[in-house]
Amino acid sequence: MNGGYDLSKGAYEKGVAFITGASSGIGAAFARELGRRGFDLVLTGRRRERLEALASVLTHDYGIQVEVVVAELAKDEDLEALAEKVHSQDQLEILINNAGFGAGGAPFHEQDYTVHQAMLKAHMLATVRLTYAALPVLIARGRGAIINVSSVAAFFPLPYHTMYTATKEFIRIFSESLAIELRATGVRVQALCPGFTRTDFHARLGFDPDRFYQTSGPLRAMSAEEVVQASLRCLARGKVICVPGTTNWIVSHLPCLIPRPLEHWLLGRFSRLMAT
Ligand SMILES: NC(=O)c1ccc[n+]([C@@H]2O[C@H](COP(=O)([O-])OP(=O)(O)OC[C@H]3O[C@@H](n4cnc5c(N)ncnc54)[C@H](OP(=O)(O)O)[C@@H]3O)[C@@H](O)[C@H]2O)c1
Fold this sequence. Notes:
The protein has nine helices and nine strands. Helix 1 runs parallel beside helix 2 and helix 3 runs parallel beside helix 4. Strand 7, helix 6 and strand 8 form a beta-alpha-beta unit. It is an alpha/beta fold. The chain has one domain: NAD(P)-binding Rossmann-like Domain (Rossmann fold). The protein binds NADP nicotinamide-adenine-dinucleotide phosphate (NAP). NADP nicotinamide-adenine-dinucleotide phosphate binds next to helix 1 and helix 4.
């Protein structure tokens, strides 16, 4: 537990929030909430029209400045350009490394290697590069936060989604180590670990959102807005690992509670179901 960073007090309204993956889902929800709280925004993603439409609504509704940068995080030159942009924000208050995608549902060696590579870059390299670009600015200001979006899948192995779970685990442990390292600087780091959330994520994997997401009960999918509120509450309380929702919290703790062979058996069965 580190000291908190409470955005509700209005002390940060002149800052800039830099959000990757802002064209939909959790990233767009962060943009709407931080825009409402008076942050200027830099929004990135690949779907220009979605980003520009969101920017124009937020500028109109909240009178903030919003810049749109279209970038493919798996492309080295785009990532370097973004890193320079992050580093040049002298009012940088928050960096949210949120962009990500799912892939899998088949054995690791049968999946397209270029997709594995793109995932390594978009989830791990981009998070590392942009964090590295942001930290000198945040540390010089003596405050601010980095929120790295991981997943509840970061807490256990997930066969057939091997790259997803491994890259999300990297994000979690990277963030946790950094948070401890930066304790005395005033800069906070969070690993946000959502479970099922209603966004474009699963539709892109070919699932029908209306049938895939549970709307009630313990496995209810959360909204992106609920995930963002949970993240900002965790930030205010200084919680480094943020797992929104009670069921997700229990799931994230199961590996500590059950014997590993049983965990592997359960995950083998569950993952085969998800893969079909
Ligand atoms: N939804 C869930 O159930 C869930 C659960 C746990 C964790 N998460 C994590 O939450 C984060 C946000 O996902 P979401 O659920 O909000 O899904 P989403 O609606 O599909 O949003 C994903 C965002 O990431 C961007 N993105 C993906 N790959 C990119 C790349 N190579 N280069 C640049 N931008 C890229 C997308 O931009 P464009 O589409 O414009 O290219 C989009 O803005 C992801 O990291 C995901 O792993 C989601």
